[in-house]
Design goal:
Helices cover 28% and strands 23% of the residues. By secondary structure, it is of the alpha/beta class. α5 packs across α6. The strands form three sheets. It has a seven-stranded mixed sheet with strand order 8-9-7-10-6-11-12, sandwiched between helices. The chain has a three-stranded mixed sheet with strand order 3-4-5, with helices on one face. Strands 1-2 form a two-stranded antiparallel sheet. The structure holds adenosine-5'-diphosphate and magnesium ion (MG). The site of magnesium ion has 5 residues, from α3.
Length: 276
């Protein structure tokens, strides 16, 4: 050993500060890729393990070489062994995921307002319930919620208590209309609608594991932010398109079909409402 300074782990760690991750622009010690516990000394031999965030790091060998050089330059070091490891950190999940507690999510949509989406959604939920299924109903029409009135609940009745699931006619129902007094408008831009939909899907305790057979989602008209968010944030079993016999309504329904096909949401079928 030359010099009279004893080789320490601290000195090795300090030397490793010369090694930078070119992508992150910082040294591997401050990035937490290596710490004192990763350094072993045995006489004049040094062993270090460096843990990257991905085994596919393109500069991995370059970093190993730099680390070896930096440590070999320390007085009292005869040999260096650098092990490159990787611990891939999970990122926050993005993309469609199942709604907890829900076995099947059925969306009710159309490109038009007033064709009977909400009517169909409520009656579909009640019909499934009457067959003995366990059913939830989510009003995803955040700016024009009609589910409270259709379930015979006074709009805004949860204004003081905060939004929660209401059991009504055997359904578990949630609507922003439970919070808003009648006639109150919610004016939200797209991103906020997306956040709102995500929270209603994933922050509402719809049920224990597999408890709800169906969650019926009443969408607002149009190929809107709400429909897009639903398809992007939740695993949708399929969508029911509602139309009327009116040629313009059918034209719009076909647009809705193409929209959901693009989002890879299966089309369960179409309902021609008001066909008398
Ligand atoms: N088959 C039907 N027969 C008669 N009235 C209907 C029928 N379907 C819906 N309605 C009525 O039409 C109006 C619009 O229906 P709604 O379900 O709110 O449509 P959307 O949700 O598509 O805007 C409501 O007043 C509803 O009661
Ligand atoms: Mg509606």
């Amino acid at each position: 050993m030359d010099g009279d300074k004893k080789l320490t782990k601290e000195a090795v760690l300090e030397a490793l500060r010369q090694v930078h991750d070119p992508d992150l622009g910082r040294d591997i010690v401050s990035l937490g890729f290596v710490s004192l516990e990763d350094i072993a000394l045995c006489g004049d031999q040094v062993k270090v393990s460096i843990t990257l965030t991905t085994p596919a790091c393109p500069v991995r060998e370059e970093m190993r070489r730099q680390a070896q050089e930096a440590i070999l330059a320390l007085p009292g070091v005869a040999s260096v062994e650098v092990e490159m490891k990787a611990n891939v950190r999970p990122t926050g999940f993005r993309g469609p995921r199942p709604v907890a507690g829900v076995r099947n999510l059925i969306a009710v949509a159309s490109n038009k307002g007033g064709v009977g989406k909400s009517t169909v959604a409520v009656n579909l939920a009640l019909a499934l319930r009457n067959y003995g299924a366990r059913v939830g109903l989510l009003d995803a029409d955040l700016t024009g919620p009609n589910v409270p009135t259709m379930l015979g609940l006074p709009p805004g009745f949860q204004a003081d208590k905060g939004l929660s699931i209401v059991e009504r006619y055997g359904l578990r129902a949630v609507s922003l209309g439970f919070l808003l007094p009648p006639g109150t408008a919610v004016i939200w831009r797209g991103p906020l609608i997306g956040t709102g939909i995500r929270q209603l899907l994933h922050d509402i305790p719809w049920g224990e594991e597999g408890e709800l057979d169906y969650l019926v989602v009443d969408l607002p008209p149009g190929t809107s932010d709400a429909s897009m968010s639903l398809a992007q944030d939740a695993t949708v079993t399929g969508v029911v398109i509602v139309t009327t016999p009116n040629a313009v309504s059918v034209e719009d329904a076909l647009k809705a079909v193409s929209f959901f096909e693009k989002l890879h949401v299966p089309i369960l079928g179409a309902i021609e409402n008001m066909s008398y």
